[in-house]
Amino acid sequence: MAQSFATRSNLTPGQARTVAAWRFDDARRLWQSGMAKHMNGAVYLGGLALDCLLKARLLEKHPALRSTLPENLAQRERARWNLVYRTHDLEAIVGELPDVTRRLQDASVFGAPRLDTMLKSACSRWSIHVRYLPKRVDAAEADEFLRQVEELRRWL
């Protein structure tokens, strides 16, 4: 019998970063196809890459999330565990990472787009529900989003 593709296990920051790189590569390849029907998929996968990177940061900051069952955690940590393993709420994850926001603010160069603003924009524009979007994302919009994610990858 074939093994399930969806075997669940605890996640390490390194695993989350590896998956982020794979999903971003998938997103770029879909965008590079130039086919309008693939732009939604490109945005969806680009957002998943950002999701994985933010979760890696959360796992680094809270190591107990890597190996503990949620019922063994305090209420606040259980909420963080849910952010890693049960949701794709980018804005909520960023809310748990004020150090990341400060780092992005400090790294912003005068005259260039602010990295913290870029992160806020990317997180507010994306949702797991992009996969159900009944309209097509155009190539320019998909490219802009992927460029934001690519820039943020360097800092996350």
Topology of this structure?
Layout: H1 13-32, H2 39-61, H3 75-85, H4 90-95, H5 98-107, H6 115-125, H7 139-153
Key phrases:
single chain; 156 residues; mainly alpha; 7 helices; 62% helix; globular
Describe the protein in words.
The protein has 156 residues and is mostly helical. 62% of the residues lie in helices and 0% in strands. The termini are far apart.
Mean pLDDT rating = 92
Distance between the termini: 39 Å
Poorly predicted runs are none
Run of helices and strands: HHHHHHH
Number of DSSP-assigned strands? 0
DSSP strand content: under 5%
- How many strands, which pairing sense, and closed or not: the largest β-sheet? none
Helix content: 55-70%
Tally of individual helices: 7
Shape: globular
Find the structural class using helix and strand composition.
Answer: mainly alpha
Concise description?
With 156 residues, this protein is an all-alpha fold. The chain has helices spanning 13-32, 39-61, 75-85, 90-95, 98-107, 115-125, 139-153.
